[in-house]
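User: Thanks for the earlier help. One more: Undecaprenyl-diphosphatase. Can you show the sequence and predicted structure together?

Assistant: Of course, both are below.
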Amino acid sequence: MSTLEIIILALLQGLTEFLPISSSAHLILPSQIFGWQDQGLAFDVAVHVGTLLAVIMYFRKEVGAMAVAWLGTVGVGPEKGKQSFDGKLAWWILFATIPAGLFGLLGKDFIEEHLRSALVIAATTLLFGFLLGFADIKAGKRATHKPMEKLGFKGAMLIGLAQAIALIPGTSRSGITMTIGLMLGLSRASAARFSFLLSIPAITMAGSYLTLKLVLSAEGVDWFAMGLGSLIAFVSAYACIHYFLILLEKLGMMPFVIYRLILGVGLFWYILA
């Protein structure tokens, strides 16, 4: 890959991983539209590491509190035997990650062969864009919002099931999890926070799978591309999370809904032209 391709693809990964607009779609489209070669497993691993570090660093206080509380629930550490919401939240997130793991394991070959096309991305971009808009409008009209503590195990699993659907390109992992969170009564901020925390084990699983494939393959490693890609993905993802949360409070999801609708229509025009 050229340096320009490295920069563009790493920026796309960092900026779209946590926005409700589908990172997988934005990484697939350049190769289909511009004829770029596949970036390779090593680069995929690098940008996943970058985005994972960004979300962990941004939510480091929450992640630390959840880790200590979770250890306490299994009888380890300073909070041994204590029951707290942080410990409960950690369990919710772990269990809610299972559907995506199972769906990815069982359906990855089918998705790779049949669903990584511009037509599928166009359709899912529009469909889940409309759903996000519907959920955001309902949330905006709601007088009160359910606190995250009241989400419950069932609600967390529903969001986890939605995350599994996001393996289909164009759906957007963050988009569909925030959509379900909003439909379950969470505020925009709470839906986004749960989605971001849920992304940590999801990105870890994806990165681990790609790393295993890389180790088992004979693919060469371009250390410059990996290093630059990881750094750009980290910086852009960290900035994206920060400014997204600010924008969310002021404008809601509508800017991203409009973007998805424009992108989906544009893709259909490109395909059918």
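User: Great, one quick takeaway?

Assistant: The longest helix spans residues 85-114.
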